[in-house]
Amino acid sequence: MAKLETALNKGAFIRASVWLGISVAAIGLAVLAGWALGLESLTVLIPGHVSMKANTAVSFICIGTALSTLTVYGGKGTSAPVIFARALALVAVSLGALNALEYAAGIDFGIDQMLFTDPQVTAQSPYPGRMSPVTALNFVLFGVALYYHSDDRKLAVVNALTAVAGAFSLLGVISALYGAIPLVPLARYTNIAVHTSIAFVLMFLGIIFSRPGYGIMKVVSDEGAAGLLARRLLPAVIALEISTGWFRLYLRDRDLVTREYGAALTTLVNLCFVVGFFVLAARALKRSEDELREHRERLEELVDERTAELTVTNEHLMAEARERRLAEKDLIKSEERFRLMVKAVKDYAIVMLDPDGNIASWNEGAERIKGYTSSEAIGRHFSCFYPAGDRDAGKPARELELVALAGRYEDEGYRVRKDGSAFWANVVITALKDDDGGLRGFLKVTRDITERKKAEDAVRRINEELELRVAERTSQLTSANKELEAFCYSVSHDLRSPLRSIDGFSQAVLEDYEDKLDDQGRDCLHRVRAASQRMGQLIDDLLKLSRVTRGEMQRESVDLSAVARKAAEGLSETQAGRQVELIVQDGLSVDGDPQLLRVVMDNLIGNAWKFTSKHASARIEVGGTVKDGRQAYFVRDDGSGFDMAYSDKLFGPFQRLHAVTDFPGTGIGLATVQRIIARHGGKVWAEGAVEKGATFYFTIGQDVPAILKEAA
Amino acid sequence: MKDKRILLVEDNPDDVELTLRALKKNNILNEVVVARDGVEAVDYVFGTGSYEGRDISELPMIVLLDLKLPRMDGIEVLKMLRENEATKMLPVIILTSSKEESDLIKGYSLGCNSYIRKPVDFTQFSDTVRQIGLYWLLLNVPPTM
Question: Which of A168, A257, A589, B140 is deepest in the core (most CB within 10 A)?
Answer without folding.
Answer: A168
